[in-house]
Amino acid sequence: MRNHKNKLIAAAIMLGVIGWGFGLYKLNHPAPDPVAMSDSTSTISTAISEVAAGKATLIDVRTPAEYAAGHAKGAINFDSVNVQAGQLPNMSKSTKVYVYCHSGSRAAIVQPIMQQAGFTDVTSLGALQSWYDAGGPKA
Fold this sequence. Notes:
Helix content: 40-55%
CATH topology of the largest domain: Oxidized Rhodanese, domain 1
CATH architecture of the largest domain: 3-Layer(aba) Sandwich
Strand order of the largest sheet: 2-1-3-4
Low-confidence stretches: 21-38
Structural class: alpha/beta
Largest sheet: 4 strands, parallel
CATH class of the largest domain: Alpha Beta
Number of strands: 4
Strand content: 5-15%
Mean pLDDT: 84
Number of helices: 6
Order of helices and strands: HHEHEHEHEH
Number of domains: 2
């Protein structure tokens, strides 16, 4: 009987620890803001149209190997490492530019670097998967 009681107490403690861990996780990883998500989807939809119409340039800032493994249709590859080293795409600084990468982190780094270098219209689209999820064509 005592062994059974100890198992119940251990199970209750374990559930408490799991619940605490989940609560801590949720605190540090809040649910996405639906308004921000719709803004992001709208931005990507606009980008898809503008790139298809030749009104904007789409830049994949992943490595050449990542680009070769699959990318958005119409995207050019310009590795974020090059941008961080001070190299910039050879285009007019007034060109409307959209950048993306695998997760969005490299695109978020490249955007302000290009803006500080004088590019007047640079938007980070975040992750390549977001492009696909919004209906953007694959190459």
